[in-house]
Design a protein that fits this description.
The protein is α/β, with parallel strands linked by helices. It has a single domain, classed as Rossmann fold. About 30% of the residues lie in helices and about 25% in strands. It is built from ten helices and eleven strands. A hairpin with a 3-residue loop joins strand 9 and strand 10. The longest helix is centred in the last third of the chain and has 18 residues.
Length: about 300
């Protein structure tokens, strides 16, 4: 089944060129089913790239998905034109009375700051609290996962002496989870972080379990056993060239940037990297959507009554 996005969203052209199944709004309303309603809180500077990365994965499912784009009201990103945000994005006040099967919180380039120093942190905390009665589940990515872990479970983040940067093998630690169905014992996942979360802090928190971790990069996927919330501390959604663009950007600015680990062919930054983690990205998102579909209530307004 296809993913429903706004008909004139620019990402549509890219997604259609990749044969991602899409459906226009007029056709979607004719289908006698309830789509999964997902809210994407996009905190990344290059919003269009992030939209495509997530829509690509969400569209690879037999379930119909309705995607709503969201951003913060208290901070306007400099890398996306205001007109684009006004046309395609919502903020909390716009969706406050709506209900969703899940909210996805992306990463953000603020991870070296203490949470309370992020200028939209009070608004983000309000969104997290609102989601408890208006979103059945939460899925956090990278800094979005760290922010959720901190707000919901008091799990701190810690600074790294050297940036963790590259594609690292992760070991599946919870083989019985439906979310890891079909995964090999080890799978690759891109990492780009100046901070980390300690496995001891995670396991000390009530109800959290590790789904996957790396001997080098540390915890990679965490689940709240009671709510089904997922915290992915790395970036399965990344495109093949995302780490390369980051590396070349930093190098061009004269920053001391190490080569991303296990990424460029022959460790040669002039060569084109290969996306060898994408099958696992598709697999995880399909597993997540299926698990969500099995558990979410048909009438989402009942969330406010629980």
């Amino acid at each position: 089944m296809p993913i429903k996005i706004q008909d004139d969203l620019p990402a549509r052209t890219v997604l259609e060129s990749e044969n991602v199944d899409l459906i226009i709004s007029g056709e979607a309303v004719k289908q006698d089913i309830r789509p999964l309603k997902l809210l994407l809180l996009n905190l990344m500077p290059k919003k269009k790239e992030t939209e495509i990365q997530f829509a690509r994965l969400l569209g690879n499912s037999p379930l119909q998905v309705e995607l709503t784009l969201m951003t913060t009201a208290s901070y306007t990103p400099r890398n996306t034109e205001p007109g684009y945000l006004r046309r395609y994005y919502r903020n909390l006040d716009d969706v406050r009375d709506d209900y969703f099967d899940a909210i996805i919180i992306t990463g953000a380039p603020v991870e070296t700051l203490p949470f309370e120093d992020v200028n939209y942190w009070p608004e983000l905390q309000e969104i997290f609290d609102w989601s408890k009665t208006h979103c059945f589940r939460r899925l956090g990515i990278c800094w979005g996962a760290q922010a959720l872990l901190n707000h919901l479970h008091d799990v701190p983040k810690h600074g790294l002496d050297v940036k963790c940067f590259g594609v690292f093998d992760h070991q599946v630690t919870e083989n019985m989870s439906r979310l890891m169905k079909g995964f090999t014992d080890n799978f690759p996942m891109p990492v780009s972080r100046y901070t980390f979360n300690s496995r001891d802090d995670i396991l000390a928190a009530d109800g959290l379990e590790l789904l996957a971790e790396s001997q080098i990069a540390g915890p990679g996927m965490v689940r709240d056993k009671s709510t089904g919330d997922i915290f992915i501390l790395n970036h399965l959604e990344y495109d093949a060239e995302t780490l390369a663009a980051e590396y070349h950007r930093d190098a061009d600015e004269g920053l001391e940037t190490a080569l991303p680990y296990n990424y460029f062919p022959n460790d040669d930054p002039s060569q084109v990297p290969i996306n060898f983690w994408r099958p696992f990205a598709y697999l995880f998102m399909a597993n997540w959507l299926h698990d969500l579909y099995q558990a979410t209530p048909f009438d989402l307004s009942n969330l406010a009554k629980d």
